[in-house]
Hints:
- The chain is mainly α.
- It has 2 domains: 3-24 and 165-296, Cyclin A, domain 1; 35-163 and 318-342, Cyclin-like (Cyclin A, domain 1), CATH 1.10.472.10.
- 53% of the residues lie in helices and 1% in strands.
- It has a two-stranded antiparallel sheet with strand order 1-2.
- A hairpin with a 6-residue loop joins strand 1 (189-190) and strand 2.
- The longest helix has 19 residues, at 106-124.
- It is globular.
- Mean pLDDT is 77; it is low at 9-15, 43-51, 188-199 and 301-346.
Amino acid sequence: MTASQTAQCAWEMESNDLTLMESMLLKERTTYAQHDFFARPSPISPIFQDEDGAMPVDAFCRNIMAKWCISLCKYCSYDRGMVSSVMSCVDRFVTTPEGSKALTNRNQYQLAVMASLYLVAKVQQTQALEPASIAKLSRGKYTKSDIEAMELEILVSLKWFVNPPTPMAFALEFIEHFDFVPENSEYAYHGENESTVSSDSATTDARITELVRCQVQEAICDYELSCGTRPSHVAYGALSNALESMDIDPADLESMRFLGERLRIEDDRSVSAALLQAVSSSDSSSDSLSSLLLHRCGLNGGKRSRRNSRSVDRPERSDPEGARFTEISSSSVHESPRAVAGHMVC
Length: 346
């Protein structure tokens, strides 16, 4: 039996895991499917678009709001991964007839993000913020009733589907059920000082998880990776980069080939390269883990890998209307939630 057949059998034998994975793959294609809503004709009438001279939302606005959510999660000691669920709710909400008007009004979009963070925190965290506390972050722009009303509108529009399969959820499933270190290989995990090594499988899996996590967390703020790429494909691309940074060629692994076929991935290079680009352009790119990932995958002065030998042209995001949304500085994560909101609110 070949390694590929072994992987297939392992997948099929674990019926419960198969059910979970199949369910996640189905959900990401149906209930939680992404939409490139900036490329679609707006369902909002021209009359509404002109109301109050409202400014439309663009990808730059989405990026700023996602960063604000991340900053607030850090301040509240929430798992940063929940922002994937928050932005999924927002991204799907603005594609509904009820929520599409938020794309023409940045104030409404901001309110939708704040309400989504409030409702997702209640679902995923042990301690939730009070709606009044969320309202205070707007410095008087929204009330407790505004937050609660928008929360209900989002829940109804999304039919209460607010717990999507995220890239990290897929990655954890992959790491748990597949082997990504070649048998009888000379691979050993290098510690941060590059001198200590460990071949323990648990340590290796933990290292792969860390390398994947630092990529998918940056993907949250990227519109193309969030709304134009399936979460399972983001997870696969991040896993490919993680393995390559550990001197393991993903192309040599039967498990990766099997996953690629199972996920119907035609070209993983663009996703992998986009993830590296997102990491390299973020404030965390100087972190030891991110720097090591970029260096070993051919960025930040390291040798360029075969996988990412082609240059990646990523369009610059800018706010055509000027200073309506101000980018959050990296130091803002240590400020109070209200001060953090000051970077977001005009």
